[in-house]
Design brief:
binds FE2/S2 (inorganic) cluster; five-stranded mixed beta sheet; binds flavin mononucleotide; four-stranded mixed beta sheet; 589 residues; binds iron/sulfur cluster; 15 strands; 25 helices; globular; alpha/beta; 13% strand
Amino acid sequence: MKKGKSGVGQKIVANGGGPDRPARNIGSRKRARGFPKGRQLEDAALREVRELLGSRPRRPDLLIEFLHLIQDRYHYLSARHLRALCEEMRLSQAAVYEVATFYSHFDVIKEGDTPPPPTTIRVCDSITCELKGAEALHAALKAHANPSQVRVLRAPCMGRCDTAPVCEIGHLHVDHATVDSVEAVVESGKREPVIPPYQTLAEYRAKGGYSVLQSCRTGARTVESVISTLSDASLKGLGGAGFPVGRKWQIVRSYHGPRLMTINGDEGEPGTFKDRFYLEREPHGMFEGALIGAWAVEAERIYLYMRDEYPAVLHILAHEIAALEQAGLIEPGFIELRRGAGAYICGEESAMIESIEGKRGYPRNRPPYIAEVGLFDRPTLNQNVETLHWIPQILAKGAKWFADHGVNGGKGFRSWSVSGRVRKPGVIVAPAGITARELIERAGGMEEGQTFKAYLPGGASGGILPASLADLPLDFGTLDKYGSFVGSHAIVIFSDRDDIGAVVLNLLRFFKDESCGQCTPCRVGCDKAVALLERDKWDEELLNELAQAMRDASICGLGQAAPNAFITAMEHFPHATARSDVAGRPDRY
Ligand SMILES: Cc1cc2nc3c(=O)[nH]c(=O)nc-3n(C[C@H](O)[C@H](O)[C@H](O)COP(=O)(O)O)c2cc1C
Ligand code: SF4
Ligand code: FES
């Protein structure tokens, strides 16, 4: 469950108040004269916060950005700085603490508590990394670390599953991490990300980039023709839900403006790394696609939400947005980059919108859908990074070019994130409708000495299927009758050496940690599922009953999809229980 629901925030804010709070927050309660209540404002802290915020407007939607500024500068959020931030933004302490404690990348430190040490090592413990030894790595790093200098934390998928196991030290990732390689980085003092070489704006334009956008803006293309080309191409949303893009644009346009657009770059589904793949290589495909979308729905502004786990991407995006402004392709401020703060649930579009508004990432109840009432209550077009990436190419090369690339009834390309027990894990751009067996072949086959046993067709959410079902076409809808789905197209391959029960337990622990805690079926359900899956023998009846309640009554897709893993495992692997760790080692944590 996310931190903010654990009661930490609530306990702290019970202190709230004080003589310096805006009148609207004080209410009518009287206060003992001469004895100010609550946490006191420190002039020095206020000066420090003001200096950090500079001339930025003190808008409440920028709260998370400001928390990042403080966290980046001081490595934690002290009570005195949070108090000063409340003052500066004229927000209640409750409002600020509930946000700060929700996100795992913020370290809220109460008065009298010890701040974290200067160096944080995050060890990814999601499924592919666990498969590749993350448990042992975490234990060894923890045993070696000097706790006054270094803390070692577990963290969910970092979107680098092709180089598992992975650690992050400050903002610097270590791929194929070992104790030695991580300790060498700690010693080196390096904490900033390595920026990979990527296609710049000038290089993209030299190859004809932004000519499709120009043809839209100059009137050579109409909105109707663009929408019908995308519909003919059968382009679907590639963030997980597969909603047809052309139809979504029409729906958003049908609501009265002013409208807004969001780009979902949260990519937190374990096993998924395709958006990062594109953004670290050719970010302008996404930018051009987004600007075409904004033109089509007449969006006033684009908010680009990028996960904090991708610091190199954040750097690239900031740089390239500035380049777009300088080139006159966008007005200054037209694309606003927003940084997530370590919460998987903020990939769910309504939670992402809450986060952009500066709040906790609580998914909204629907209807209304965000197409009608979205960001700042405006009709909002939201698309995933990869969805946008394909748009300029489809418009330049034609609907048929894209649609014809599918196989087995699928239409178009997909970017499959393939990881686990294959020789060459990575992003494989291949037709929609391809099978898992073919993807394994394209990924160089199984690792030496391993026999294919099972796979996740859609990351942690999409269930687990046996090798005997590896010839099914993989596309939206094709796995429904197996209780499974492709979602974000994250394929994780397991071998005969892997313990399916432990795989399922790892997936449910992820959901338990990442549930926002807003609704009972998911908050309690994930917790209960983990407890049941930890038992030596799975109680199938109880697990089925639990799954039913979670699917029927959870507010969002997290709670609805979380049971897929154990329901499909019980069907296809009837003797599964977590007898070892994922990689089959009996000395389980
Ligand atoms: C729990 C959960 C997590 C999600 N995470 C992401 C994500 O990281 N990135 C993404 O684009 N969509 C994610 N989605 C799907 C979004 O809600 C939404 O459908 C998508 O961003 C729409 O864009 P698209 O139509 O281009 O796919 C998630 C959905 C759920 C329920
Ligand atoms: S299902 Fe409920 S508790 Fe779970 S993540 Fe969604 S809103 Fe939060
Ligand atoms: S980076 Fe560790 S599972 Fe994805």
